[in-house]
Each structure stands twice: as C-alpha cells, then as structure tokens.
Amino acid sequence: MVRKRIFFITLFVISIIGLAVIQYRYLKIGLNLARVQFSQKIALVGADVQKDLSGRNQLTFLLANALEKDTSYFKTEPAVLEDASRYFLEDYLKERLVDHEIDREFSFALKARDSSFYLRSAQKPREAEKDFLYPIEVKGYLSDRLGKRVVLQLEFQNLDGYFLSQLNGLTLPSILFLLGILAVVLWVLRTYYWQRKVITTTNAFINNLTHELRTPVFSISLATKILDAKIGEEEREFTGRILKETKKLTNHIDKVLELGALEHKRTVLEKEHLDFRPALEQICLDFAGLCVLEGQPFSYDVAPGPYLMKASVFHLENAVNNLLDNARKYGADSQIRLTAAKKGKQLEIRVQNGGTPIPAGALEEIFKKYYRIPDGDRQGVRGYGLGLSYVRTVAEKHRGWVSVSSDPVNGTVFMLFVPLVSDGSKDV
After folding, report:
1. This prediction's pTM
2. Average pLDDT, the chain
C-alpha cells in the first residue's frame, strides 16, 4: 500500500512538472513567433519610412536643416530647430508604427554612418535597456544633401514583456488551469486521506465496541439458559423472550463485524468448491417455517441443480437470508417468493415481495452502508442500514453483483447473481 501511494504521488508530481515544462516550451515557441511577427511588421514600417523620407518634403527638409544646424531658413536657434525636428520625426514614426499595429514605446537615432551628423529622440535609453535595434537606411534627399549615408535606428526596450502581454490570452488561462488542476488534486487527496482516517477510526471503534458487547451478551444468554432450566413452564415464556432477543443482538453484532471485515480490501474469503443448491433449499425451508409461525405468505422455486461454484457458503447463506429478512420486514404481509435458476454461467436468485415500492431515487442508495429510506412506513421497522450493504459486498467478493427493481405492479425484486463453475473447474 505504501509503495502504491508513493508511486501515485510520484506520478502526480512528474505529471505536474511535465505539464509545466510543456507550457514553458509552448511559451518559448509563442515568444519566438511573436518576435518573427514583430520583425515582419518592423520591416513593413521600414519600407514605408524609406519611401516617405526618400523625397524632399517638409519633414526631410526640417531634418536636413537640423542635422546641418542651418538656421538661415527658419531663423531660430539651432537647439530649437533640433527639438522641433526631433518631435516631428517622433510623431511621424509613432503614426507609422500604429498603422502596422505596433503600440510600443521606442526611441530613435538619426545619424550619418560616421556620426558626423546626429539626432536622437528626447528619451535616450540606457545601454542595458536596448533590447532590439532596427536600423533603416534612409536614401534619397537626406543622404544626397548631407553627402553621407544616413541611417535611422529604431530602439525598443523590454520587448519580452510586450510579447508576453500579447500572449496573455494563452498563457494566463494555461497557468490558471494548471493551478486549478493542482488545487483540485490536492483537495481530493486531502479529502481522501481525511475520509480514510475517519473510516479507519470508525471501523476500529465499531470493532472494539462489538467485541466488548459480546461478553455481556454471552453472559446474559448463559445465565438465562441456567435460569430456564430451574424455573417452571409458566415463567419460561420470559426466559424464551430473553434468549430470542439476545440471539437477535448476537446476530446484529456478527453482521457488523462481518461487514467491516468484508469491506477491507485485503480481506480474502475462504472459498471452497461446493453445490449451493442444498444450502439454498435449507434456507427456504427454514424461512418457510418462520413464515408459518408469523402468518407470512411465502413460496419458493429452486430449479434443478447442481449449483456448482467456488464460494463461502457461510457468507452466501447470510446474504440470501438478509434478502428474505428484508422482504419479510418491508413487505407489509404481502406474498414473498424466492426463485433460483441458472442463467448461462450465473446463478440468479430472485427475492420478490409487495408492499410500498422503493422510490426510484433510492434504488441505488439502499446498498450504501447505514442508509435507510426516509419515507413511508419503513421508519417503523427497526434496522441499521447494514443488510443490503452486506449483500452487495458478499456478491462482489464472489465476483457477482446484486440489483433491484421496484414498482407498484410487480413489487420489489432483488436479484443476486453469483458465477457458477463447470465440473472439474479449479477457480472462478
């Protein structure tokens, strides 16, 4: 069990780490694609800039005068002329970038190849902040007038953050889903171990309590038998009632212990090869005698055998008795009928009774431990909600199953299926 737990925890951790690594690789691929797309857009911007700055226009004329510090035309200080050209060029570049869906802060530098002429944007980035540089060679009017090759260099900072913001529609949901999966799995594990601890504690308490009850029940039964041998016939009615009730209490204690043991996954039933038909007929005969005493209508039909199987006759008998006992308690004095027959490689045992039908929503719930139907006249019937849970557990331990149907016309029908074996078969 410990090895299995370590295996699943390791598998879970590896899966989470694997998902995180895959998401990281997808993120890197997305960033690379964003870089490629950004470069393509910048190339289009560069083509537009080259075309617009190749001829003589107001902007190129202003830039040429600012680079040459020629104030003969504009009649102003060289610094003012340089500031005006700087802001005009920056507005122009912003417009071109927005045209190509690039909304990112930038800086620029317009200079000759030998840096004899130089114009920089107002915000000059530090050298460490220059992530991407895109040079655009400006041909035509500016280079001809200056007599030198002119380059306009666009500079972008922290483009990775910009690309990540563009990928938020993919990265954020992926991270949230990953965290959601992690939270749900951790919650399930926490709930599982908490419930397991509660179940273990509950079973330990029930086992200890039932074992402690055995001693006083045995003492009461023994004392009653001794008393019964010494009293007269008139008083034996009371001792008989005490013995009957102590036997019933002993059966309840045994049922709780058996169910707790069977529900433990490591519990292995001691099975043997047998013909279950004689035991089933004896169950029917005993139950028929009880029904005669209580005035309960009962009939049965056990098809010819043999019913060869590998089973625990003790638990299988208890399961059938539980079905018959439930039919008697909840049948409201209606006809009870048991039929048994081979259905292929299965033995089908059907127990049918009338009375109030089981609600559709409770047909599956009644097989749960401690569950009791909270309506009708069933609240007047004593019980602990253990019988049908025990029947299902016994059926599953024999690789069989149990089912139920209930309606006002056909009544309530429980069907217990147990695998059969052929002659000479050694296992089920």
Report:
1. 0.47
2. 80
